[in-house]
User: Fold this.
Amino acid sequence: MSATRPVQGPRLLLPALREVYEVFVRASGELPALPGALPAEVWVSAQLGTLEAAAPHAEGRRAALGDLVTSLRAAGTPGARTFLRGLAAIGPAEVRKIAAKAAGAVRAGEPSWAADLGAVTPGQVWLIQEGPLDGDRLVCEFRYPDGRDLHAVAVRLSYGDAPGEIVPVGDVPALMNAARQAMQAELCTVQPFSPAAVGERLRTALSGAQAIPDDCYPALALARHRASLLP
Assistant:
């Protein structure tokens, strides 16, 4: 009688992290039930933030991303395919192409909003200043195709343009109404700002050249993607 060999998973660059990738694969089952592209992008960004925060260096992060794509493709579930679509849309540049190819190889269904992932157009940019110690809060508006689902990414930059806070905003009118009320109470100033100037500033601030606070990692990938779309 021949011994039964254990079933092997996909070949990985960092096999010691196999159980970590399996956690991501299982969690991806949540994605298809989300109501739209924005909450899905926020979800994907949070997973990417977890990986980047834990990576000891850029090379390790790239290896982990490649392994994650391999693991998701091997899983072949609707959630795994949707996660791959999200990586292809808003993930780091080095993973987008391989994630898109892997998603195309997965024969599983996907939610109706999957085509909207990353497909946004920039809109108005606002500068909100509450005082010299608070820094600049940059609110960048975006819409999905056909002008749908207005949303924003709000990034607070402190002295030297170090990122201090990144917040995805689903209800932009409520945010801006609150900001205008604060302005009337002379608690802050609110003014439209140049998208081109903000785009360059955000891309530099979010590049990773400066230390990224732990609280910024969950929305970092989303903010980087949106900043890349500004002029």
